Amino acid sequence: MNILAGDLGGRRIKLGVVCDGRVIASTVIPARADSPLPERLEAVAETLAGLCAGLGTTVGACAGIGLSYPSIIDTANARVVDHFGKYGDASAFDLRTWARQALGLPLAIDNDARMALIGEWRYGAGRGCDNVVMMTLGTGLGTAAVIKGEVLRGAHGQAGILGGHLTVQLGGNPCVCGNIGCAEAEASTWALERFARRHPDFPTSQLGQESPLDYAPLFRWAATGDPCAVALREHSLQVWGAAAVNLIHAYDPELLLLGGGIMASGDLILPRVREQIARHAHTPWGRVSVEASALGDHAALLACEWLVQEHLSTIS
User: Fold this and answer.
1) What 3-state DSSP class applies to 124?
2) pLDDT for 164-198, tens place per residue?
3) C-alpha angle 177/151/9, rounded to 5°?
4) pTM of the predicted model over 0.90
5) Helix (H, G, I), strand (E, B), or coil: what is residue 295?
6) What is the CATH architecture of 3-112+297-315?
7) How far is residue 297's CA from residue 33's CA, in Å, rounded to a whole number?
8) Which of 13, 144, 254, 282 is deepest in the core (most CB within 10 A)?
9) Residue 240, C-beta contacts closer than 8 angstroms, at least 6 positions apart
């Protein structure tokens, strides 16, 4: 049976209809994350109805709706616990009541990084491996873990997802989470421009001409030998490698997946992270495999099928 799926990002909301491990229809709408959440959910409901109509069906004929959301989530009660600057009213909003009233469907929701891993674990690059962690390199650094075939959530919904907020630099940059020297505060897209402008070579760097300044031009200018870009690239690669070692030491996986938009430069990132893990990770049993994710934007949408099925099994 069809499942409605939504992935609420900071800039885009990806929406789809999923059936039997396939995204059979999808589209994207603007996130407008500074808007009230109920306002954007009206657009979500309308867009999902349009996707269903295009398939010759209705939202009411679906089994449920799954959501991927950029926050700590109380999955049992489908509540947003924190908001990190996106949809500031979300924690006060009853998503399950909205789903029943607007769609006539049960709803399940989980953290976006965890959903990306669930999608890869069930349908993508992690399929067949029940001890897998994932790190997504993008606007922030998202992480998640599956251990012995169980999705790690913890007592309060934050287990596994704060790997980007482990300290990698004592006395480093302050992070939005309140910690100092987090991997995310040292090497993520939101932190990059601030970090770059403090570098002594920035005034003469080609990076100063880039708007927005993100990792695509950084890697491009680094390849030409731009000193500032090279220094920032090397720092970021070291941070991501250190974060990967932290995840391996914390969760004892057999497989580490790397995803996110920055992995457009995966041909450079993957071998460097593998090298750092080989040098510094304590795994006397053998080597952790390190691979790129496979599903891209569809990972979290596909995870919605598994998530809704998990939720329905608890209420049946």
Assistant:
1) coil
2) 999 999 999 999 899 999 999 999 999 999 999 99
3) 50
4) yes
5) coil
6) 2-Layer Sandwich (3.30)
7) 18
8) 144
9) 135, 137, 141, 183, 187, 258, 269, 272, 273
